[in-house]
Amino acid sequence: MTKTILILGARSDIGLAAAHAFAAKGYGVQLAARRAAELAAQKADIEVRFAVPVSLHECDALDLASHEAFVSGLPVLPDVAVCAIGTMGEQAENEQSAEKSVMVLRSNFEGPVSLFTILANRMAARGSGTLVGISSVAGERGRAANYVYGSAKAGFTAFLSGLRNRLARGRTGVHVVTVLPGFVNTAMTAGMDLPAKLTAEPAELGAAIWKAVESGRNVIYVRPIWRLVMLIIRHIPESIFKKLSI
Amino acid sequence: MLLSGWGRYPALECRLVRPGEGDGAVAALSASGPLIARGRGRAYGDAALNRDCTLDMRARNRMLAFDPATGVLVAEAGVTLAEIIDTFLPRGWFPAVTPGTKFVTLGGAIAADVHGKNHHKDGAFSGCIQWIDIIGADGVVRRAGPSENAELFAWTCGGMGLTGVILRAAVKLRPVETGWIRQRAIPAPGLATAMDLFEGAQDSTYSVAWIDCMAGGRALGRSIVMLGEHAARAELGPREGADPFVAARRRAKTVPFDLPGFALNSLSVRAFNQLYYGIGAWNAGESLIDFDSYFYPLDALLEWNRIYGRRGFAQFQCVLPLAASPEGLAVLLKAIARSGQGSFLAVLKRMGAQESRFSFPMEGYTLALDFPVREGTARLFTELERIVVDHGGRFYLAKDAFLSPEILRASDPRTPAFTAMRGASGADGRFVSALSERLKL
């Protein structure tokens, strides 16, 4: 039987890259996002390239009350669900506006937690499934440059870790993969001058997610160098860290 | 950010802008100031550079529809030939026309009206385009093809992005039974033999020659002429038959760092050319090779442009009319051999007749070579340009970084009509590249 992958945040380059990687292996694809009807080109693209069925689903991460109905409305409970929902916001605006800060938390943390809780419980009831959370190295340590986004991702990373622990202990057959992409060449980072060696292409990420799901990995950094970079950043003493501009 | 073409010369500080979703986002950007669309940056010189706004079309790479009955693919302009091959070769389809790299986008291939090893038979890339959607200077999206908005279509093919931003295209693919090419390599000890071989090979689907541009005297123009046909299923041996669409791909190697400039001196190039001719002559005859090795030998070395060092390199590609080719090519080759400024990658090709508004090809012979950019390069180019103009030839703008507006006009009498079209449509104020400014287009 055809397996199915659900992409939450299907407008994101990373979500689409995951869809491509799985479609290449024959998975059917469910693309979920706000204004899903506008994803017709993305849908056609996957259908033409990989000759797999693709469906579009309306999903608003911030509209928590709609999430149960959204999951129930999927034609089939997916085998793999990838959450690529998120927005960085403008750090300078986030600092000045409590409202904007909270919005960043809601879209990167609250919405994904709500959706994954519902999906995790249904997958556990079925006895199989994989949840893939796209978190961020920004959540490993708060930095002046993007700590609002970073704190939301820190929360999401902790949630994924705990959910993985719970589902593994309960022998539910459901696995959780945490993805910490580092820099990726996407719309979110367009215009930033990123170091080439540290910057992954979305397709690289898609392939890495496929591999991680296949082999049951827990936490992946897409480019291995990031494991080292973050090890160092986590271990800088706070007295020094607070004066750095990194 | 610092942007350049594939030759890495010139490099300019450009604002690279990725448009949002929808045609409207491109129109809005275009309305806010002059820009030029850029795909994968495979034009060699300054064709896809604009300091204030270079439009990054790489993310516009969705395939929208494919008709297996006709082989027509509708796709966004940022889709590359590599993506098309990955997707459709396993289903028995291949680009009908392909240049020497598969990392070009559809938009770029149309804008440069690229040609391939089958130009003498199948014409240039525009010939396999059924229609394009293009945003013009007025911000309106138009569908243009040979039968609707034909003027706009004709100017856009070979128009170097200076008529508008190409959004989508319908491109007809060629049915193939396999991904293998039956190649026949024939050594030619001199220019006259090479040209005779081309003239005798008009029925071959593909033909191209690697030419040793360091050789002088009696060996002037010695070449390996390579003819090719798509291999049928029944023509494959057991090795190829086990992998008819060449799916078990070799892993691409890259040139990991810039070689120092001295790595490529006249001695190393001379040695390379000697060796290449020797090996080619040794391997003469028929063989089956995979499409990557046949069409894209250099793509296997990703970022091969770095072998020329930090200063980059410049391509020189011209075409001479058929009648003037024997003499003109000999004069060009002599000048190059005398300069000692070598080139590994010199290619000679017979082109077929092509009617076009501003495309490069014409019936005759095209010669392409590259030179590392160093002192004296500009002087040599000036000398070569003079020879081309004297013989009624013209230049390939997709490769160019050095031409002057005067030489362009001396070589291509179509130029005033092109600039007049730009003026009349208002494109001259909307679609501007470093190339269009340099050449006053």
Uncertain residue ranges of chain B? none
Mean pLDDT of chain B: 91
Q: What class would the helix/strand composition of chain B place it in?
A: alpha+beta
Major sheet description of chain B = 8 strands, antiparallel
Q: How would you characterize the largest beta sheet of chain A?
A: 7 strands, parallel
CATH architecture level-2 label of the largest domain in chain B: 2-Layer Sandwich
Spatial extent as radius of gyration of chain A? 18 Å
Which shape of chain B, going by the Cα principal axes? Answer: globular
Note down, in words, how this protein is organized.
The complex is a heterodimer of chains A (246) and B (441). Chain A has nine helices and nine strands. By secondary structure, chain A is of the alpha/beta class. Chain A has a single domain, classed as Rossmann fold. In chain A, the strands form two sheets. A seven-stranded parallel β-sheet of chain A has the order 3-2-1-4-5-6-9, sandwiched between helices. In chain A, strands 7-8 form a two-stranded parallel sheet. In chain A, α1 packs across α7 and α5 packs parallel to α6. The longest helix of chain A has 29 residues. Chain A is globular, with a radius of gyration of 18 Å. The termini of chain A are far apart. The relative contact order of chain A is 0.13. The model of chain A has no long low-confidence stretch (mean pLDDT 93). An eight-stranded antiparallel β-sheet of chain B has the order 16-12-14-13-19-20-18-21. In chain B, α10 packs antiparallel against α11. Chain B is α+β, with helices and mostly antiparallel strands and 441 residues long. Chain B folds into three domains: 73 residues; 113 residues, Uridine Diphospho-n-acetylenolpyruvylglucosamine Reductase, domain 3 (2-Layer Sandwich), CATH 3.30.465.10; 221 residues, Alpha-Beta Plaits. The interface between A and B is medium-sized, with 12 and 16 residues.
